[in-house]
Batch of 2 targets.
Target 1
Amino acid sequence: MTTRTARAQAPAGYDPSQFPAFAVTVDIVILTMVQGELQVLLVRRGQAPFDGMWAVPGGFKLPTETLDQAAQRELVEETRVDAASLLTQFGAYGDPGRDPRMNVVTVAYLAVLRDVGTVVAGSDAAEAALVKVADVLDGSVELAFDHLRIVRDALARVRVELEVSGIATAFVGTTFTLAELRSVYEAVWGVHLDGANFRRSIVAEQGWVIPTGRHAQSGPAGGKPAELFRAGRAWKHGGPIRRPRRLTKGK
Amino acid sequence: MTTRTARAQAPAGYDPSQFPAFAVTVDIVILTMVQGELQVLLVRRGQAPFDGMWAVPGGFKLPTETLDQAAQRELVEETRVDAASLLTQFGAYGDPGRDPRMNVVTVAYLAVLRDVGTVVAGSDAAEAALVKVADVLDGSVELAFDHLRIVRDALARVRVELEVSGIATAFVGTTFTLAELRSVYEAVWGVHLDGANFRRSIVAEQGWVIPTGRHAQSGPAGGKPAELFRAGRAWKHGGPIRRPRRLTKGK
DNA sequence: CCCGGTTCTGGTCGATATGACGTGAACTTG
DNA sequence: CAAGTTCACGTCATATCGACCAGAACCGGG
């Protein structure tokens, strides 16, 4: 096929009136934790294509807003939750034919929320539900468009995000025990973590968790009451990624 | 301002004929290393806006190609270099007014090349040049649009890429000494690395470098001839990111 | 040809980080 | 109050990391 619909070399010389038109959308992979299970908020489509199928919530970007603002707006519309800092852009998707009706490029965001369940009802979407991420990955729940790939990429992103930032605290409440926080890591990474070592590592990390003086109540099985922490603010960054650690350092 | 030009809630109910039209472009931050200096390939704009200013090369995405393919095509047009695996998408930019003429969302890619200098001449751009990244960051060279931000984000990305992948080998030749490779890390991270420790770490990393039997010639100052390596293939990944290491592991 | 200068490469050593595990404290239920 | 559970803290062996040293292998000049 011949390219150059609009002098595909740009921007050093092109006709602004002559370019392929796209719709730009933002899609938000909203992750939450329900009883140790990682879940994703999906909406059911009410029209073709992919009528009746589940999809990641999203919507058009407006010319008057930034991508971040568009994602923010969609998040609020979907969950009534207003928390700018936890939105992380992680990819753009524009394969031809990904939407059979028109040319769409979508910019995908990751949002991590606690207990989004109560808030789903307030959505203005026709139908919204929390679905186990595992069911999406193994194909039990089929997603519209290329949303399976998007969810997969979101999951990959949150996995590294857990390690390099304190984003895990977004999964839990404003105060939480280290056992709760640990269960987030265990669910997302699919591993078992030693409680004592986990405590050592997390507390050593600067700005991730801050001890409140208070203690939680014991669970139904008893046990020593756990210390309550609140989130540090070491996980609000704007751009792509950071963390230039060293491979091996000299003098 | 009122939103909802096209029922901004989508995709659970919208009119496909009624949405804001955008141009979608791909911009490529092409980094290379010239005598220990990190440089970026820029093109000079030949028209308004930002006439005469430097910009990151890029161009329109076509409806018939993927974003990766568009980036690939632009890279070839700009440098005649064909190497798919070293293109990494790292961000999307769509602030209103970033292009005063129309609504443009750009998807930014990072490309790392060796010795792009000889190849710049073959570009079909009006004027292309390698510019020190430092000069861009400190404002000595002003960039058009929001390209300064894009270059900054690209640099942040390549910094972490160096650590988690063997991408550093893309900066050097097909065979290289560890001193050459080390100078890449030192330039990008802005630090001094101990040669002996660097060797230990790099060689321990699986699939990053592979020893050829051969040895390089000594430099003008003499010295023991360095062993020659070639790149392993541990740095071709598609999606966003990977690497779920653990914070602290249990049994 | 020897010698000082240079670079590469292998090794040592102490500090720190990590994984495994033990023990007492504090709370539950019966 | 006894038994069971969870949390908090400490210990210990091992692995990794940063600093550094010394020998090997090359250069140039005397």
Target 2
Amino acid sequence: MTMNATGGRRRPPTIHDVAREAGVSRGTVSRVLNGGHYVSPAAEEAVNAAIRKTGYVVNRHARSLITGRSDSVGFLLTEPQERFFEDPNFNVLLRGCTQALAAHDIPLLLMLAGTPDERRRIMRYITAGHVDGVLLVSSHSGDPVADELRDAGVPLVACGKPIGRASKMSYVAADDRDGARDMVRHLLSLGRRRVGTVTGPLDTPGGVERLAGYREVLAGEGIEVDERLIASGDYSRAGGEAAATRLLAQAPDLDAVFVASDLMAQGVLTALHRAGRRVPQDIAVGGFDDSPAALSARPELTTVRQPWDRISAEMVRVLLAQIGGEDPAAVILPTELVIRGSA
Amino acid sequence: MTMNATGGRRRPPTIHDVAREAGVSRGTVSRVLNGGHYVSPAAEEAVNAAIRKTGYVVNRHARSLITGRSDSVGFLLTEPQERFFEDPNFNVLLRGCTQALAAHDIPLLLMLAGTPDERRRIMRYITAGHVDGVLLVSSHSGDPVADELRDAGVPLVACGKPIGRASKMSYVAADDRDGARDMVRHLLSLGRRRVGTVTGPLDTPGGVERLAGYREVLAGEGIEVDERLIASGDYSRAGGEAAATRLLAQAPDLDAVFVASDLMAQGVLTALHRAGRRVPQDIAVGGFDDSPAALSARPELTTVRQPWDRISAEMVRVLLAQIGGEDPAAVILPTELVIRGSA
DNA sequence: CACGCATCTGTGAGCGTTCACAGTAGAGAA
DNA sequence: TTCTCTACTGTGAACGCTCACAGATGCGTG
């Protein structure tokens, strides 16, 4: 190490410095940097040594200027802020994506578009080419962002099946419907017969699909679906609490509830506790997600695990493929029933 | 709008296109873009109209190439991964910083440096100038990252007072010690006399300062500090549970606990519940943070609120000032006691 | 009238990289 | 030998922007 041991920023070495040090031309250094094709072993070795010696790091701005690529991707949240930081799933997903991208040496830009104003600004930023692609998280069907981005030709992968989209768009999702089926079957296997459900918002894929799974199993068992056993929530704790309260009023003989998210299930537990119902003795409760919330609930939640690590890895894989020119793809991943104390 | 209504990416307009459209030179457009000094009102108006018409967005790569600035900042987490997504505080902080930066149109790059390997890669990335500054979150004193960055001359703001630093470094922190004092005083005011504490890791500022506040109040009240009433945790739920179990064994006459984080307090509640102690009747529990965890606990936690929104806003303000050439600064913000069911 | 000064404008250079192209050398085929 | 082909290397010319500078104009002052 020959360089600046003392503080303060020196002018960093350029590709030119490396070329001089290695006794080759800029072009050769550039070729080594980009895969090393058409470079003699001797030259490659010399360049690598020079890179180590000078501490050279490629200037991404210069590279981006010419390639038109930014070598970064955006992680876009269109939810209103509060949902973001209340929902543990987002964090797991964010972390997974960051790490999967880091393996490709691609930084992740976190973008929050809560208000229409922010949305406009961020759309400009994205469509100006400052990111190569976008990981889009949980947009409601009313959300125009996905369509706008797709129309602008920006590579895009959604988390969760986008509902109501006309044309093809990449997405990665857990098999919501199948997970819901597993849970409802489990509740029935416990001997429960008045199985209710607290759904997610019905303009989200999770809301729709998990409810569909619930209906399917009941129908399959020849049980008529009682609409009084269905209440919709908004994925928040408070929403779950309110929904459970309604459920108890409409159907006091309730003996099990399938709740479409763990966070709502926490609210459900609160409501049941206040109503003096014991869990799981009087009413069995099943959640969805297997988020950290499932473990902090009392009793711990029986739930459906979403494979977040695989979801994030697949989102990144599909996005990079799409940036590389491949066609959009849909990936559906299996869920897993996790049995704990609440059911 | 005259441009590409159809999908697919066209070559985006450049500053040259805007200049031609406005009938001025590149230089004038550039001046308008950068504050509009030394530009006649007529020219400025023409340029703005041309920008609107062409849909021009500045190419940050080209700009960065010459200015040497990236117009982005990094949000660096040096914690091992699990802490990140288990701790609700991080999310609040992350969101706050993202929004505060967005107001300056500066994107935030999320960086996770869990393993030494990742750390090296990210340090290279940062020191190569790909971000203008770094928001550093909660580094243990053993963590060399802060010193390395400072030595490299990278503008830096830490969240929480860095302990054991030789020279000055910017940081923003809640007044941990004062918050702890408030809580312990509150517990004493309830008539409790065997007040224990579960500390954070003692190589973190929060761990050290909150314990110091605890000791101060007891000393001030003339109560001798019983070391059996002190157990250290690691800010995790499990750590809190283990610490509480130790505390109960060492000091069965415990009648209150000040826990240095809400998450640990959840673990403490679990341990107390298992031991058959009622909260708050038998043992009062006070947390710290006022994170979402405080509300999901049963009973809800009496805790010390950290002003996360202000903390994030101040971190961004201080960082931008430092990037602008100002000297490092330390900011300490007041906490607030929040009384709920657990004490 | 000449001069300084402030305000405004255009122009060339250059930031650090990649890309296309034009070379060079050596090996093998005709 | 000569020609072709492959492997490798160097060299301008961009990419889109900012910066320094030079020029132009108008106004007040000596």
